[in-house]
């Protein structure tokens, strides 16, 4: 079953095929980014910071500085999500994050 990620309001906006999958996808199945490092920082296909996975949220840190990624990965293509999004967890750290704007034209 897919692992769903939510925005600040608790609406599903993205998913992973599994928790260990480094690739993230928009709900329509298009690849939006990946986690190139040993943390939950998500980089867009162009190498720029997209957001961070915090618990079950995909959010942008509002104190983020520019840190481009020079690594590359193969585009995994369009994938199908499975299952339905569960109820999102409570997210008390709203002051430190903003919503991620997801482009569907990747």
Please explain how this structure is put together.
By secondary structure, this protein is mostly beta strands. The chain has one domain. The chain has strands spanning 3-6, 12-16, 23-26, 31-34, 41-43, 49-54, 57-61, 97-99.
Poorly predicted sequence stretches spanning 5 or more consecutive residues = none
SS content category? mainly beta
Q: How do the strands line up in the largest sheet? A: 1-2-3-4
Q: Determine the N-to-C terminus distance.
A: 23 Å
- Share of helix among residues? under 10%
Main sheet properties: 4 strands, antiparallel
Short précis:
Helix content is 0%, strand content 32%. It has 106 residues and is an all-beta fold. Strand 1 and strand 2 form a beta hairpin.
List the helices and strands and how they pair.
Blueprint: E1 3-6, E2 12-16, E3 23-26, E4 31-34, E5 41-43, E6 49-54, E7 57-61, E8 97-99
Antiparallel strand pairs: 1-2, 2-3, 3-4, 5-6, 6-7, 7-8
Question: Can you tag this structure with a few keywords?
Answer:
106 residues, mainly beta, four-stranded antiparallel β-sheet, globular
């Amino acid at each position: 079953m897919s692992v769903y990620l939510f925005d600040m309001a608790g609406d599903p906006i993205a998913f992973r095929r599994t928790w260990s999958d480094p690739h993230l996808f928009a709900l329509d199945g298009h690849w939006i980014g990946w986690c190139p490092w040993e943390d939950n920082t998500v980089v867009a296909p162009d190498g720029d910071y997209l957001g961070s996975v915090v618990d079950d949220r995909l959010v942008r840190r509002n104190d983020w500085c520019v840190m481009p990624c020079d690594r590359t990965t193969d585009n995994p293509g369009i994938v199908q999500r499975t299952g339905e999004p569960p109820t999102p967890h409570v997210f008390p750290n709203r002051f430190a994050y903003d919503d991620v704007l997801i482009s569907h034209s990747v």
